[in-house]
Amino acid sequence: MDLDNTERFVNSWASAWNTHDVEAVLAHFDEDVTFSSPVAARVLGGDGVVHGKDALRAYWTRALALVPDLRFEVLGSYAGVDCLVIHYRNQVGGLVNEVLVFDGPLVVRGYGTYLGGDRPSPAGID
Fold this sequence. Notes:
globular; 6 strands; six-stranded mixed beta sheet; alpha+beta; Nuclear Transport Factor 2, Chain: A; single chain
């Protein structure tokens, strides 16, 4: 992933999240994506692993309903050969790294990681 594409991706990703446009966020993801997060475990129960774009849509739609004030402030981004880490602060002041692995232009695996991720509500979901 080159630096120009990184900046464009991060700006598009953050804008989509901050306007709560799930479809715009999902445009960056492959149909067979796997995404894991402790927030997914909290919202959906189970192991926090979401398989497939339709399931990811359902999870994010449900999570946004629980966090109507969701807002991300990007603090930095870090590009690898086929991956990207987006470091941001969420609406409750939590520090988060989103780790995204690409196959071509689309994300095929994603990981939401939270500083103090064992806290009861790292994303502000009660």
